[in-house]
Design goal:
Blueprint: H1 2-8, E1 14-15, E2 19-20, H2 26-39, E3 44-49, H3 54-60, H4 67-84, E4 86-90, E5 95-100, E6 113-116, H5 120-129, E7 132-134, E8 138-139, H6 146-159, E9 167-175, H7 196-208, E10 211-219, H8 223-242
Parallel strand pairs: 1-3, 2-3, 3-6, 6-7, 7-9, 8-9, 9-10
Antiparallel strand pairs: 4-5
Length: about 240
């Protein structure tokens, strides 16, 4: 699907939010990502996570245990393969010997790796291996990003990484109740809502907190709602140009 999207578009970035690490061999995943980056001419972001939905694992006969430990080893394969084109690794769960990606894709350092997670171990892995981070949950107002960002900064300090070198992303649950009552669940307990100007102001708020990529989960997911979101984006951009 991503290959088709990149062939059909020219400017928009495409990416995964996020692939479950255990569904693909990490070395093969890195090769697939580099190839997709070639097809897209450098517009791909590889998002990966440890996975969480146990029924999916059971359905495909994939082990559900030690998911973060398996991801830790996978990142030690994926990150150097994409950045340098070569890795030699032997761990408890994965082994790759003298593995190369050749020819390389369009970017010297390969496509950026985004890791999604909010637990202490996941944040530490993000600080060690990722180019971008997502807190792996639905946010609302920019204030909801303060605590996750603070925890990430602590993890960066622990591994000796400058937090400003890590790209920040956020998934925002956005609703227009007058167009349909948004469904609430343990995964989405609340939504951002308001006028076009208020949504644009929230975008500015996230930008001021250092967020470089903002994604929206819209409710209801209709053309009318997407048009309203587009209006908010236009207002946000106009306000940015004036400021």
């Amino acid at each position: 699907m991503l290959s088709a999207l990149t062939e059909a578009t020219q400017r928009v970035e495409v990416g995964t939010l996020v692939l479950c690490n255990l569904f693909r061999n990490p070395a093969l995943l890195a090769k697939m990502a580099d190839t997709l980056d070639e097809v897209s001419k450098g517009r791909f972001v590889l998002g990966v996570g440890a996975g969480w939905n146990e029924p999916e694992f059971r359905a495909f006969g994939i082990p559900f245990d030690h998911r973060v430990g398996r991801l830790e080893e996978a990142l030690q394969i994926i990150s150097p393969l994409l950045k340098t084109g070569h890795v030699d690794f032997e761990g408890k769960y994965y082994q790759v010997r003298d593995c190369e990606i050749t020819p390389r894709g369009p970017r010297v350092g390969g496509p950026p790796v985004l890791v999604a997670g909010s637990g202490p171990r996941m944040l530490r892995l993000t600080a060690q291996y990722a180019d971008m981070w997502n807190p792996s949950g639905y946010l609302t107002a920019p204030s909801s990003f303060i605590e996750p960002r603070a925890k990430l900064r602590v993890a960066c300090t622990e591994v000796g990484r400058d937090p400003t070198t890590l790209g920040l992303t956020a998934m925002v649950a956005l609703a227009y109740p007058e167009l349909g009552e948004p469904p609430l669940s343990p995964h989405i307990p609340a939504y951002l809502s308001g006028s076009t100007e208020e949504i644009a102001a929230a975008m500015h708020g996230y930008e001021q907190m250092g967020v470089s990529h903002l994604m929206f989960h819209c409710a209801p997911y209709t053309a009318t709602v997407l048009d309203r979101l587009a209006e908010a984006v236009h207002v946000y951009r106009r306000q940015g140009a004036v400021n």
